[in-house]
Specification:
Low-confidence stretches: 93-98
Number of strands: 15
Order of helices and strands: EEHHEEEEHEHEHEHHEHHEEEHHEHEHH
Strand order of the largest sheet: 3-6-7-8-15-9-14-13-12-11-10
Strand content: 15-25%
Structural class: alpha+beta
Number of helices: 14
Distance between the termini: 49 Å
Largest sheet: 11 strands, mixed
Shape: globular
């Protein structure tokens, strides 16, 4: 356990290593009200991955943990989605490092893993001022640790709310960059009846047609616990991985699902069967009042004909969520257009890069990538432009990008 001093006495920040050093009950308190991916089960699951070393920062008030910031150090080969250079498109920039993966220096990344949603965990604090003070103390400790070790550092996939806690307290050389987005859907009261009113008559006609295709192709919906039919689910997930060019073997897909079934609680699977054979699934992890859509798989021959994905991920999920008291479905990143037209809302995800030593070429590439992404996001869902987006634009000097209407994405 490494102690990192902070000016916020009587608070003290300590580097505790993995979350198990704190205990599941304490971590559950810290992560209360935050994303599934910040909770004790998911953090412990991520801590067991072998490609990174957990070094979570926990803020204590006396002996009581009151706030936390998950962090991981990656040495040598970095996972793509947790490599700041890779996710910001800097690998091929003039002036970027040209070392092989094995020669690259360690990098410290703050935030959760696998869920693409990172937050300062302040669930034990109720006062907004104390939450902001805690977040700033944790960021100070993270910054100091990176400097002491000579490692580049970044917090990736930061939510609007968490960024707002520290935005006014950043040092001038810190860079805040729009890096991704995530979509959630508010579950209408009344389930599908309420959903029809939300999406409107024209869209509902399209969606009702997709529901009928599911039925006319002889598909049957089954709601399963996580742990049943893992081999069939792995085979379907593998088809999706191959379709998107992911480097996953069939056995690796099955083992990933088996690992989740053993380590993670509160999961429900929306599954489609045809003539007794599974032809599609979407898994949802349950946390608080939110269902988090995670993995899915679809049989190539039935996916489009029966609209399997849309029926499982949206229509069956909305019905089940309303029946069981869930208020929100977290649909995650990617495929923003399809998610928005089905009632979702797009939210920004940020990279907070600690005083990077970027060349002019790298700064240009980051700015151009961000401009394209912002235009695309605004074209899909103008609601992505929140007060936090405006505050970042003022700080970073790109307020003009918010003027007028977005250009068509392309």
């Amino acid at each position: 356990m490494t102690r990192v001093p902070t000016h916020a006495e009587p608070w003290q920040v300590e580097e505790v290593g993995p979350a198990s050093s704190v205990g599941a009950a304490h971590w559950a308190t810290l992560s209360a009200g935050h994303s599934l991916y910040s909770g004790p089960d998911w953090i412990r699951h991520a801590d067991l991955m072998r490609d990174g070393v957990p070094g979570h920062l926990v803020l204590f008030e006396g002996d009581r943990p009151v706030s936390a910031l998950p962090t991981y150090t990656f040495e040598g080969t970095r996972p793509f989605y947790y490599d700041p250079d890779a996710v910001l498109g800097l690998h091929r920039a003039e002036g970027s490092d040209d070392e092989s993966d094995g020669d690259r220096p360690p990098v410290c990344v703050a935030g959760t893993r696998l869920g693409y949603t990172s937050e300062f965990l302040t669930g034990a604090l109720t006062d907004p001022g104390r939450r902001a003070h805690a977040a700033r103390a944790l960021l100070d400790a993270f910054r100091r640790r990176c400097a002491d070790r000579g490692e580049p550092g970044a917090m990736l996939y930061v939510t609007d709310d968490s960024l707002a806690l520290v935005l006014d307290d950043l040092v001038p050389d810190d860079q805040v960059v729009l890096m991704d987005g995530s979509v959630d859907l508010v579950v209408p009261s009344g389930g599908l009846d309420g959903y029809r009113d939300v999406v409107g008559k024209s869209r509902w006609k399209q969606f009702r047609h997709e529901m009928r295709r599911f039925e006319s192709e002889g598909c049957e919906l089954r709601i399963l616990p996580m742990g049943d039919h893992l081999e069939e689910m792995g085979a379907l997930a593998h088809q999706v991985s191959l379709r998107y060019g992911h480097d996953m073997t069939l056995q690796a897909e099955i083992e990933k699902l088996r690992d989740q079934a053993e380590r993670l609680k509160d999961c429900v699977v929306m599954a489609a069967f045809r003539k007794g054979e599974m032809v599609g699934f979407t898994q949802f992890f349950l946390s608080g009042s939110t269902m988090f859509a995670r993995g899915h798989g679809v049989a190539e021959e039935y996916g489009r004909r029966a609209s399997v994905y849309f029926n499982l991920t949206y229509y069956a999920a909305i019905r089940w969520a309303a029946e069981h008291g869930y208020e929100r479905i977290d649909l995650g990143p990617d495929s923003f257009d399809a998610k928005i037209i089905r009632g979702g809302r797009l939210h920004a995800r940020w990279a907070l890069v600690i005083a990077p030593d970027w060349s002019e070429e790298q700064r240009r590439l980051v700015g151009e990538r961000q401009e394209r992404m912002l235009s695309e996001f605004r074209t899909v869902d103008e609601r992505v432009v929140t007060p936090t987006v405006h505050a970042v634009a003022r700080r970073q000097g790109w307020e003009t990008l918010l003027d007028g209407q977005p250009s068509a994405a392309g």
